[in-house]
Amino acid sequence: MVVALGIAIRDGRSIRSEREYHEAAQARSVVSEVPTPDLVRISNHSREPILVARITGVSARMTRGNGEVEHYLGNAEPDLNGVVAPGSSWETSIELVDVVNPGRTLQPNHGVDDWQVSVTFQILDSEGQAWQRTDNGRPAKVND
Is residue 103 scored above 70 in pLDDT? Predict the structure, then answer.
Protein backbone atom coordinates (compact mmCIF):
# COMPACT_ATOMS: atom_id res chain seq x y z
CA MET A 1 0.00 0.00 0.00
CA VAL A 2 2.84 2.40 0.86
CA VAL A 3 4.58 1.58 -2.41
CA ALA A 4 1.39 2.22 -4.39
CA LEU A 5 0.91 5.56 -2.62
CA GLY A 6 4.51 6.56 -3.40
CA ILE A 7 4.07 5.67 -7.07
CA ALA A 8 0.79 7.64 -7.25
CA ILE A 9 2.46 10.73 -5.72
CA ARG A 10 5.40 10.49 -8.11
CA ASP A 11 3.12 10.02 -11.12
CA GLY A 12 0.98 12.98 -10.03
CA ARG A 13 4.06 15.21 -9.82
CA SER A 14 5.23 14.02 -13.21
CA ILE A 15 1.85 14.75 -14.81
CA ARG A 16 1.70 18.21 -13.18
CA SER A 17 5.25 19.00 -14.31
CA GLU A 18 4.49 17.92 -17.87
CA ARG A 19 1.28 20.02 -17.94
CA GLU A 20 3.16 23.09 -16.67
CA TYR A 21 5.87 22.54 -19.28
CA HIS A 22 3.26 22.51 -22.09
CA GLU A 23 1.41 25.53 -20.66
CA ALA A 24 4.65 27.55 -20.76
CA ALA A 25 5.55 26.54 -24.33
CA GLN A 26 4.48 29.83 -25.89
CA ALA A 27 6.08 31.90 -23.12
CA ARG A 28 9.40 30.11 -23.69
CA SER A 29 9.21 31.13 -27.35
CA VAL A 30 9.03 34.84 -26.53
CA VAL A 31 12.48 36.31 -25.93
CA SER A 32 14.01 39.65 -25.07
CA GLU A 33 17.03 41.26 -26.67
CA VAL A 34 18.87 44.47 -25.87
CA PRO A 35 20.66 45.46 -29.09
CA THR A 36 21.69 48.87 -27.70
CA PRO A 37 21.61 50.30 -24.16
CA ASP A 38 18.51 52.32 -25.04
CA LEU A 39 16.40 49.71 -26.87
CA VAL A 40 14.59 46.50 -25.86
CA ARG A 41 13.16 44.09 -28.40
CA ILE A 42 10.57 41.42 -27.52
CA SER A 43 10.42 38.75 -30.24
CA ASN A 44 7.63 36.21 -30.61
CA HIS A 45 9.03 32.99 -32.04
CA SER A 46 5.85 31.02 -31.29
CA ARG A 47 3.04 30.06 -33.65
CA GLU A 48 0.44 32.11 -31.74
CA PRO A 49 0.13 35.86 -31.16
CA ILE A 50 1.11 37.55 -27.92
CA LEU A 51 -1.84 39.62 -26.73
CA VAL A 52 0.02 41.98 -24.37
CA ALA A 53 3.70 42.76 -23.79
CA ARG A 54 5.07 44.93 -21.00
CA ILE A 55 8.55 45.70 -19.68
CA THR A 56 8.35 45.61 -15.88
CA GLY A 57 11.98 46.20 -14.95
CA VAL A 58 15.34 47.12 -16.43
CA SER A 59 18.73 47.22 -14.76
CA ALA A 60 22.18 47.67 -16.24
CA ARG A 61 25.82 47.39 -15.35
CA MET A 62 28.18 49.44 -17.46
CA THR A 63 31.96 49.26 -17.47
CA ARG A 64 33.66 52.34 -18.87
CA GLY A 65 36.89 52.23 -20.85
CA ASN A 66 38.81 53.34 -17.73
CA GLY A 67 37.44 50.37 -15.71
CA GLU A 68 34.86 52.42 -13.82
CA VAL A 69 31.67 50.40 -13.15
CA GLU A 70 28.31 52.15 -13.09
CA HIS A 71 24.89 50.79 -12.21
CA TYR A 72 21.68 51.96 -13.82
CA LEU A 73 17.98 51.34 -13.36
CA GLY A 74 15.48 51.97 -16.07
CA ASN A 75 12.00 51.81 -17.36
CA ALA A 76 10.32 51.49 -20.70
CA GLU A 77 7.37 53.40 -22.02
CA PRO A 78 4.85 52.79 -23.35
CA ASP A 79 3.54 49.24 -23.02
CA LEU A 80 2.56 47.58 -26.26
CA ASN A 81 -0.90 48.56 -27.49
CA GLY A 82 -1.64 45.60 -29.69
CA VAL A 83 -0.45 42.11 -30.45
CA VAL A 84 2.94 40.70 -31.36
CA ALA A 85 2.18 38.44 -34.29
CA PRO A 86 3.95 35.10 -34.67
CA GLY A 87 7.42 35.65 -36.09
CA SER A 88 7.46 39.39 -35.36
CA SER A 89 8.93 41.71 -32.74
CA TRP A 90 8.05 44.75 -30.66
CA GLU A 91 10.69 47.34 -29.84
CA THR A 92 10.57 50.04 -27.20
CA SER A 93 13.06 52.57 -26.00
CA ILE A 94 14.37 52.49 -22.46
CA GLU A 95 15.92 55.17 -20.33
CA LEU A 96 18.66 54.08 -17.96
CA VAL A 97 19.28 56.36 -14.97
CA ASP A 98 22.51 56.27 -12.94
CA VAL A 99 21.82 54.82 -9.47
CA VAL A 100 24.40 57.08 -7.77
CA ASN A 101 23.68 60.21 -9.79
CA PRO A 102 19.94 60.18 -10.70
CA GLY A 103 20.33 63.32 -12.80
CA ARG A 104 22.48 61.40 -15.27
CA THR A 105 21.14 59.00 -17.88
CA LEU A 106 23.11 56.59 -19.99
CA GLN A 107 23.68 57.82 -23.49
CA PRO A 108 24.59 55.07 -25.97
CA ASN A 109 28.19 55.03 -27.19
CA HIS A 110 29.47 57.47 -24.57
CA GLY A 111 32.62 55.62 -23.58
CA VAL A 112 30.91 52.33 -22.77
CA ASP A 113 33.14 49.37 -23.52
CA ASP A 114 31.06 46.71 -21.83
CA TRP A 115 27.40 46.82 -20.87
CA GLN A 116 24.96 44.23 -19.58
CA VAL A 117 21.26 44.98 -19.40
CA SER A 118 18.77 42.75 -17.60
CA VAL A 119 15.12 42.95 -18.66
CA THR A 120 12.05 41.65 -16.86
CA PHE A 121 8.97 41.48 -19.04
CA GLN A 122 5.44 40.13 -18.93
CA ILE A 123 3.30 38.77 -21.73
CA LEU A 124 -0.26 37.59 -22.08
CA ASP A 125 -0.26 34.46 -24.18
CA SER A 126 -2.92 33.42 -26.70
CA GLU A 127 -4.71 31.40 -23.99
CA GLY A 128 -5.04 34.46 -21.73
CA GLN A 129 -2.37 33.37 -19.23
CA ALA A 130 0.11 35.99 -18.04
CA TRP A 131 3.80 35.04 -17.84
CA GLN A 132 6.90 36.81 -16.59
CA ARG A 133 10.52 36.26 -17.60
CA THR A 134 13.74 37.90 -16.56
CA ASP A 135 16.05 38.00 -19.54
CA ASN A 136 15.38 34.67 -21.20
CA GLY A 137 15.08 32.62 -18.05
CA ARG A 138 12.33 30.22 -17.14
CA PRO A 139 8.82 31.70 -17.57
CA ALA A 140 6.76 32.04 -14.38
CA LYS A 141 2.98 32.28 -14.26
CA VAL A 142 1.64 35.61 -13.08
CA ASN A 143 -1.42 35.17 -10.95
CA ASP A 144 -3.82 38.05 -10.43
Answer: yes
